């Protein structure tokens, strides 16, 4: 997949333009978006992300288009799971609802920059060390195992990581929010506000999420351009999705199981790919292992779509059943 430099430049300019538009159209004037506003813009960004896949298909070929869609859907699913943690952080820091849009947008910008660095490193590693596919695959299977049985509790308390604790010790911080400002001058002393702290918390938390998402998408494609654009378009609509789902997040009771299956599936796919590219001397004498055929990307896309659909359907059935039971119990 040969991507000219001008295509990279145009794509990055498009993403930056969308972020600037998002800021001036929705974030600059603090407000709590309505369900209608969140729904319309969520649909716009999801549609834009899917439409970009057609552009990849037309510019290159069907296989790369399918790789993009598989990566986009996987990243989008993982981002929904991340929203639980964002919700916990917002609640713990008591961020006023009208300022939450700004926090999320800045967090997305931080995430895009960090993931860009991760993607560049990941591409360099897999290009020079084929054994990295074994490591990525094993890590995804391990992550999937950890996700099984994990539960999301919106009332869970956020525990500040080492980076946030260091910032608090080194940088003077106010106790109260000052509108949506990140810094303020008090008695001639420049201080940061809780708004800056919560943005750093969102950004640093997304760094941990990148450890799952980047290996996952490299299991679907090794094309840096597709990896980057799938991540970018999945993140662009995250702010609107946060407000759209809101309390509905608690209804996705089987989301972790669905994501665990997807990550495990991609992990196995990576290991099989590593076997075909095998150069590790203590595995089959360094010879390629082709007994098990590689999993086609089109099949991967079908598995991802089916898993997302079944997970959402079973979650809806479960929550409706629980609501009926609760209603019956309350009526007694």
Ordered list of secondary-structure elements with their pairings:
Elements (H helix, E strand, L loop, with lengths): L4 H23 L7 H25 L2 H31 L7 H29 L3 H16 L14 H9 L12 E4 L2 E4 L1 H25 L5 H13 L1 H8 L9 H22 L20 H35 L1
Antiparallel strand pairs: 1-2
Helix pairs in contact: 1-4, 1-8, 2-3, 2-8, 2-9, 3-7, 3-8, 3-10, 3-11, 4-7, 4-8, 5-10, 6-7, 7-10, 10-11
Condensed summary:
The chain has 11 helices and 2 strands. The chain has a two-stranded antiparallel ribbon. Helix 3 packs across helix 8 and helix 4 packs antiparallel against helix 8.
Please, could you describe this protein's structure?
With 332 residues, the chain is mostly helical. The chain has one domain (5-331). It has helices at 5-27, 35-59, 62-92, 100-128, 132-147, 162-170, 194-218, 224-236, 238-245, 255-276, 297-331, and strands at 183-186, 189-192. A two-stranded antiparallel sheet has the order 1-2. A hairpin with a 2-residue loop joins β1 and β2. The protein starts with a helix and ends with a helix. The model has no long low-confidence stretch (mean pLDDT 81).
Provide key terms for this protein.
mainly alpha; 71% helix; two-stranded antiparallel ribbon; 11 helices; 2% strand; 332 residues
């Amino acid at each position: 997949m040969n991507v000219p430099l001008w295509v990279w430049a145009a794509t990055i300019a498009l993403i930056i333009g969308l972020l600037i538009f998002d800021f001036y159209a929705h974030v600059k004037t603090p407000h709590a978006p309505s369900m209608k506003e969140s729904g319309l813009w969520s649909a716009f960004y999801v549609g834009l992300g899917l439409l970009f896949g057609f552009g990849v298909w037309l510019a290159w070929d069907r296989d790369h288009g399918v790789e993009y869609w598989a990566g986009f859907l996987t990243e989008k699913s993982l981002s929904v799971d991340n929203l639980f943690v964002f919700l916990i952080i917002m609640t713990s820091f008591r961020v006023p609802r009208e300022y939450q849009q700004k926090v999320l947008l800045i967090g997305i910008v931080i995430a895009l920059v960090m993931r860009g660095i991760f993607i560049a490193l990941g591409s360099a590693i897999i290009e020079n060390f084929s054994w990295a596919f074994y490591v990525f695959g094993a890590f995804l299977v391990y992550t999937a195992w950890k996700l099984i049985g994990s539960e999301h509790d919106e009332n869970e308390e956020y525990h500040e990581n080492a980076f946030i604790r260091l910032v608090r010790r080194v940088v003077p911080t106010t106790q109260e929010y000052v509108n949506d400002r990140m810094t303020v001058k008090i008695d001639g002393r420049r201080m940061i506000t809780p708004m800056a702290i919560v943005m750093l918390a969102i950004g640093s938390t997304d760094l941990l999420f990148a450890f799952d998402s980047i290996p996952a998408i490299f299991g679907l494609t090794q094309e840096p351009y597709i990896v980057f654009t799938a991540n970018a378009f999945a993140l662009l609509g995250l702010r609107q999705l946060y407000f759209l789902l809101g309390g509905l997040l608690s209804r996705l009771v089987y989301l972790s199981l669905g994501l665990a299956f997807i990550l495990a599936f991609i992990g196995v796919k990576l290991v099989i790919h590593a076997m075909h590219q095998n150069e590790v001397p203590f595995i089959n004498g360094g010879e390629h292992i082709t007994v098990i055929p590689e999993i086609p990307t089109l099949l991967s896309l079908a598995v991802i779509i089916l898993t997302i659909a079944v997970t959402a359907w079973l979650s809806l059935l479960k929550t409706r059943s629980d609501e009926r039971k609760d209603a019956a119990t309350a009526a007694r």
